[in-house]
Write a structure and sequence with these properties.
A hairpin with a 2-residue loop joins strand 1 (31-37) and strand 2. The N and C termini lie far apart (52 Å). The chain is mainly β. 24% of the residues are buried. Helix content is 11%, strand content 45%. The chain is built from two helices and 17 strands.
Length: 245
């Protein structure tokens, strides 16, 4: 009975994942291969990026193996203060064990290639930065990217029903509270396109506040809660892993 349940669970999870269409427009994040075997979901994504390995890079990220497997042979230990070029991101989700691991395939000096384990740090977790739709507002079409992160405003901020200033309306305003000078909200989506307001060029982000209200704000005046990359794109996330400030 246990075997039947286990097989059925794997089938459901596999069917659900394969049925989803995740759009990255053929760029970084595009799924090259996905399969489920023995209760393990393996996803390989395209990811082309040049990354600087700083002298603050964790030692585990310097170890390059010939296969994406912790028992495979170590073929290289990267030096500090060098560049690597990534090719792919491989993630494994262990269904029964409820754990995951991520590997990146890299090239060093265009001669040596192999795999680095990032542990549980998957820059594409929950399909991060995928295209989730478009919206026609303020006289233009905006492409929306999935974005989940915290963002902070220091002054009262108007929240609009759609991105842009033309033809949109303010639906509520974010205010500071007496016990907190910061206005902390979470983002849901970000526009791929840039807007310029009062000399500042930046994106619009869809936010949700502490009361569960949602709407669009111009992110030019915002800062990122607790530091880190301004937008948590997979490229920025990987950069932050190897070039710890």
């Amino acid at each position: 009975m246990r075997r039947v349940y286990y097989a059925f669970l794997c089938f459901l999870v596999s069917s659900n994942i394969m049925a989803q269409t995740v759009d990255y427009r053929g760029g970084n994040g595009t799924i090259l291969e996905q399969k489920t075997e023995n209760g393990i979901i393996t996803t390989i994504r395209l990811h082309i990026q040049s990354i600087f390995v700083s002298d603050e890079t964790p030692e585990d990220y310097l170890v390059v193996r010939n296969e994406p497997d912790s028992s495979s042979r170590i073929i290289l230990e990267l030096p500090y203060n060098c560049y690597i070029d990534t090719e792919k991101v491989l993630s494994r989700d262990y269904i029964i064990e409820k754990r995951n691991e991520t590997w990146i395939k890299i090239q060093y000096q265009k001669e040596k290639s192999g795999w680095i384990c990032l542990g549980t740090e998957n820059p594409y977790k929950n399909d991060n930065w995928s295209i989730i739709g478009t919206i026609n507002a303020s006289g233009r079409i905006w492409t929306l990217r999935k974005l989940r992160q915290g963002i902070t405003f220091w002054n009262p901020t108007s929240v609009r029903d759609q991105p842009g200033l033309i033809g949109t309306k303010v639906i509520f305003t974010l205010y500071r509270t007496p016990d907190n000078p910061q206005i902390n909200v979470d983002t849901i989506a970000v526009t791929e396109e840039i807007d310029t307001i009062e000399g500042i060029s930046d994106c619009w982000v869809k936010i949700v506040d502490s009361e569960g209200r949602t709407g669009w704000v111009f992110s030019g005046p915002a800062t990122i809660e607790r530091g880190g990359p301004r937008y948590m794109t997979p490229e920025n996330i990987l950069t932050s892993y190897f070039a710890v400030p």
